Amino acid sequence: SAGTSFRAPTLYQRFSIYGIPTLEAETGRNVEAGLRWQSGQNKVGVVVYRNHVENLIDYLSGPGRCINGTGTRPGCYGNVGEALYRGVTLTAATQVGAVNLSGSVDWMDPRNALTDKRLPRRARRQATLLADTRVGGWKLGGEMQAVGSRFDDVANRNELGGYTLFSLSASTEVARDWTLLARVNNLANKDYQTARGYATAGRTFYLGLTWAP
Description:
Blueprint: E1 2-7, H1 11-15, E2 26-39, E3 42-64, E4 73-96, E5 99-112, E6 125-135, E7 138-147, E8 150-151, E9 159-160, E10 163-175, E11 178-185, E12 204-211
Antiparallel strand pairs: 1-2, 2-3, 3-4, 4-5, 5-6, 6-7, 7-10, 8-9, 10-11, 11-12
């Protein structure tokens, strides 16, 4: 498949204290090719892609003075002249007994095409593994998410370490159209950062009741 993309800056990206009123809209040209194979419960897929984006709207970390507001900010929104995403995504799924397994692995090279620096806060490697099964009237599931190291700044000097997160979930129908859901995110209470200096939630518990007629 091949296509083009267009994204206008939001009001926050233009007029907040971190904004630049003169931000330009980003445009892109995207090409990808994929293959899928299936035999019974076994599925395998591969996708190769190349996305070229002009005037990519991004949060550019590093001391600087934004146009809006006063004082020095840790970063501002701005346009990356040319950004290039190239990568491969592998996916697979199978069933082992009563357990459904699925996962994906991504290798990506996200770069500023003008400076050859890696785009900030984007990992070159990440993987996801999912498993679920049914026990009685419950659907039980587990998830593992692994993310590689990233750079926090445009100059690629401040590195953020990689991390691996585990989550568990359980759901059951309590009445017609009503589902009870419980979930534990970041089961191991991993201490990690997606942006330097910003606290990330540790172990969290979620309990919900959904109605879907």
